[in-house]
Amino acid sequence: MIRPIRGNHNTALATRYYHVWHMRDPNEPFENLRPLDVLAIAAHPDDVEQTCGGTLIKMAERGYRTGVLDLTAGDMGSRGTPDLRITESRRAAEHMLLSWRQNLRMPDARLENNIGARMTLAGVIRRIRPKTVILPYWTGRHPDHYRTCELGYEACFLAGLKRLEEDTPPHRPFKILYSSLYANVTPSFVIDVSRQFDRRMAALLSYSSQYGDSAQASDLFPSRAEVEERLASIAKFYGNLIGVKYGEPYVVKEMMEVDDIIAMPVRSI
Ligand SMILES: [Zn+2]
Questions:
Q1: How far apart, in whole angstroms, are the C-alpha atoms of residue 57 and residue 131?
Q2: Which of 64, 76, 58, 68 has the alpha carbon at shortest distance from 37?
Q3: Which structural domain range is residue 57 located in?
Q4: pTM of the entire structure?
Q5: Of 49, 153, 158, 184, whose CB has the highest number of CB atoms within 10 Å?
Q6: Is residue 91 part of a domain?
Q7: CB–CB of 150/113 below 8 Å?
Q8: Sign of the C-alpha dihedral computed for residues 79, 221, 210 and 137 taken in this order
Q9: Is residue 67 assigned to a domain?
Q10: 203 Cβ contact list (under 8 Å, min separation 6)
C-alpha cells in the first residue's frame, strides 16, 4: 500500500503547480496517474538537478511524460528543513517541465536497502509504469547514492513479479540508465543538453536553502558562483566528448545497438 506523501505546502503554491502535476492535489494518491515515459529515482532533492535534469527537460520538450521520485527529503542536511527542500523541489520540477514528482521521505544519510524499502519502491513503479528508469551510478562517495541504485534496480525487478501485490498489475521498466556524471567512468553514451542547460541550472538554484549564499554552514558549502562554475565545467567536459557544448553522461549494463551506420552522430576525424 503506497500512501500519498503529506508535506506542508501552502495552498497558493500548490495551485500554481496544478498544471505541472496534472493532479488535483499534489498529495493525492497516484493510482490513476497516466504512465510515465521516464522516471528518475534519486536519493536527495537536488540530485537529479545536478546529474540528469537536462535529459529530463529534453525528453519533456519532445512530449514525453517525465517524473522524479526522491527517496529522502534531506533531513540530515546542514541547511534548511525537509519541508523546505520539498517545496524547493516542486519549484525545480516546474523548471524541469516534470509531469510528476514525489518524495518518499525515507531517512536521509541512513537509507537502507531492506524489504520494506524495496516493496514501497516496487509499488510506486507498478503504479506509475515508467518505460525508462534513470538511477544513480552504482558506486560513489555518499552511501545513499549507491544504495538508491541498488534499491532502484531491485525494485524494478520486483515490480515485474505478477504475485507481488494483488491490487496492481506487474510492470517492469524496459530500460535502466545509470547517471554517471559524478562517477569517474567512461560513459556508454552522452546526451547533448546544450539547449537545456540554463533551465537545469535554474532548477538547481530553486534550492535557495542549499545554494543561496547563506552564512549557515558556509564553511561546508561552496558559494553559488562556485557551484555554477563547477557544474558548467563538468557539463562541458561531457559535452566535449560528443562535440557539443554541454552533455550528461550515462552508463548502461547491456550493449547499445546501432541500426544505421550512415546516420551515426559524433565526428570521428
Ligand atoms: Zn545526493
A1: 16
A2: 64
A3: 2-7+18-212+225-251
A4: 0.88
A5: 49
A6: yes
A7: yes
A8: negative
A9: yes
A10: 49, 53, 92, 93, 95, 96
Q: How many residues does the chain have?
A: 269
Q: What is the Å distance from ligand 1's center to 47 Cα? A: 5
Cell numbers for 137, please give them: 551510478
CATH number at residue 243: 3.40.50.10320
- Does 69 map to a domain? yes
Nearest to 66 by CA among 74, 51, 54, 84: 54
For residue 176, give the 3-state DSSP assignment: strand
Q: Which residues contact 211 (CB under 8 A, 6 or more apart)?
A: 204, 205, 221, 224, 227
pLDDT tens by residue, 39-91: 999 999 999 999 999 999 999 999 999 999 999 998 888 888 999 999 999 99
Per-residue pLDDT tens digits for 168-227: 999 999 999 999 999 999 999 999 999 999 999 999 999 998 887 766 666 677 888 999
Grid cell, residue 194, equals 546544450
Q: For cell 551510478, name the residue.
A: 137
Give dist(CA 173, CA 125) in Å, integer: 8
Find the 141 Cα to ligand 1 centroid distance in Å. Answer: 10
3-state secondary structure of 246: coil
Q: Give a yes or no: residue 268 inside a domain.
A: no
Distance 165 CA to ligand 1 centre (A): 30
Is residue 129 within 8 Å of residue 35, measured between CB atoms?
yes
As for how many domains the chain has, the answer is 1
Residue written as grid cell 556508454: 188
Backbone angles phi, psi at 155, to 5 degrees: -70, -40
Measured distance CA(239)–CA(247) in Å, rounded:
4
The CA distance from 193 to 199, in Å, is: 10
- Coil, helix or strand for 255? coil
Q: Ligand 1 centroid to 258 CA: how many Å? A: 33
